[in-house]
């Protein structure tokens, strides 16, 4: 059984919201956690093959000039597929990142069947008093150390990794020591009012 403290936390920056509408990834960042420690990271801009909008340039700080010399999405995703091989994956608002991961891997004939967990859904269960569960708001609410960079892939994956470890620590304090990755996925799907009984049933 895979432990929740050994995962890869990833984040995509993209040209828009939907690969089905032709949007592409323009940056991938990821942090590898092993037994709760950061042991490796991955960061790469990638050229989607077309110009990105002024809105996306402003939102991410990733400009068309920066992307002009970046390797292609296909080249980067081939490397990234090697980096994530076999690991459980975590992202904040995971349904978004999983859509882009699957779409970009599919373009290179690669398929990822790795388990995925959403730190945002888990935060909604464990940090119910946060005003919102956007990554930046959770970072401020929990006073997670950060360098003030948001909407860049590596910075966001680093902050998500810190949030993930903070939530594992909160679970530990509530009697759930060393939860499995499967347990975290189950927690994400548990209704808020049923969280206490789920944790009680998993006391070690």
TrEMBL record:
A Pfam match: RNase_T
Taxonomic superkingdom: Bacteria
Enzyme Commission numbers on file: 2.7.7.7
Keyword set includes Hydrolase: yes
Reactions catalysed: DNA(n) + a 2'-deoxyribonucleoside 5'-triphosphate = DNA(n+1) + diphosphate
Keywords: Exonuclease, Hydrolase, Nuclease
UniProt domain Exonuclease: residue ranges: 6-173
CDD domains from the UniProt entry: DEDDh (cd06127)
SMART domains noted in UniProt: EXOIII (SM00479)
Class of enzymatic activity (EC top level): transferase
NCBIfam families, per the entry: dnaq (TIGR00573)
Protein's name in the database: DNA-directed DNA polymerase
